[in-house]
Amino acid sequence: MSQDLYREQLLDHYHNPDNYGVLENPDVDIEADNPTCGDQIHLTARLDAQGKISEVMFEGQGCVVSMAASSMFTGEVIGKTPDEIASMGLADIQEMMGGVKLSMGRVKCALLSLNAMKQGLQDAGKM
User: Fold this and answer.
1) Nearest to residue 19, comparing CAs of 57, 67, 64, 68?
2) Which residue, 24, 39, 46, 92, is the most exposed by fewest CB within 10 angstroms?
3) Domain ranges across the chain
4) CATH fold of 3-122
5) What is the pLDDT of residue 112?
6) CB of 13 within 8 A of CB of 62?
7) Phi and psi at residue 87, in whole multiples of 5°?
8) 67 Cβ partners below 8 Å, 6+ apart?
9) Could you say which DSSP state residue 55 is in?
10) From CA 4, how far away is CA 65, in angstroms rounded?
11) Number of alpha carbons in the 13 Å side-chain half-sphere of residue 78
12) Global pTM?
């Protein structure tokens, strides 16, 4: 894929995010921010009887990278266990975003939703 195609995909997720909104009665409910860039998200998720993520939604505001990564991330984690999420890192997010190489200044933006999910699962006693 060309860099232009990656850019188009990121912009599409930014303008038309997947899983945008807030779940009622979630198991995970956390707000997180990246003060460096001004990104803010509110992430909610539900786990099924097996302890896997069954639904996840987010809302917030921020740069293209944080909002696109959050949109892609919410689709990727459906069906994953907290342990699988705990083992995820930057390489997983970059792969999910089409292999795009992020500058150091954008790494926190891309990791915002993953770090929020990890913290939310810990806070909920699921991790």
Assistant:
1) 57
2) 24
3) 3-122
4) Sufe protein. Chain: A (3.90.1010)
5) 97
6) no
7) -85, -5
8) 13, 14, 17, 39, 60, 61
9) E
10) 15
11) 11
12) 0.93
Residue found under tokens 């945008």: 20
pLDDT at 1: 45
Q: Give the H or E element holding residue 84.
A: helix 82-86
Q: What number of residues does the chain have?
A: 127
What single-letter amino acid sits at 2? S
Strands (E), 35-121: 39-47, 53-61
127 touches 118 (CB < 8 A): yes
Closest CA to 122 of 70, 86, 78: 86
pLDDT along the chain (127 residues), means of 10: 68 94 97 94 97 97 95 97 97 90 90 97 92
